[in-house]
Specification:
By secondary structure, the chain is an all-beta fold. It contains no helices and 3 strands. The chain has strands at residues 2-10, 13-26, 69-81. Strands 1-2-3 form a 3-stranded antiparallel beta sheet, with no helix packed on it. It is elongated. InterPro entries: ZF_HD_homeobox_Cys/His_dimer (IPR006456). It comes from Hibiscus sabdariffa (roselle). Keywords: Metal-binding, Zinc, Zinc-finger. This is ZF-HD dimerization-type domain-containing protein.
Length: 86
């Protein structure tokens, strides 16, 4: 699971956005070459290696590349606003 934080500041208001990316079930069609549809049943991506290596992009459970797994993105935005003094 990756987490990224972006901070935007403009004038008297600031906004913080957190982005969490998770990879769900494998959607690779193993029967595509014969015109069918069959998936392997892998329910969640588990990296085969450490972050930053090429093995981190391969699933330990099914052996497929991470791109075959359904991507789930959760975003949380927190805004703070300070009204200007009149």
């Amino acid at each position: 699971m990756k987490k990224r934080q972006v901070v935007l500041r403009s004038g008297r208001s600031s906004s913080t956005s957190s982005l969490v990316v998770r990879y769900g079930e494998c959607q690779k069609n193993h029967a595509a070459s014969i015109g069918g549809h069959a998936v392997d049943g892998c329910r969640e991506f588990m990296a085969s290696g450490m972050e930053g290596t090429t093995r981190a992009l391969t699933c330990a459970a099914c052996g497929c590349h991470r791109n075959f797994h359904r991507k789930e993105v959760e975003t949380e935005v927190v805004c703070e606003y300070t009204p200007p003094n009149s």
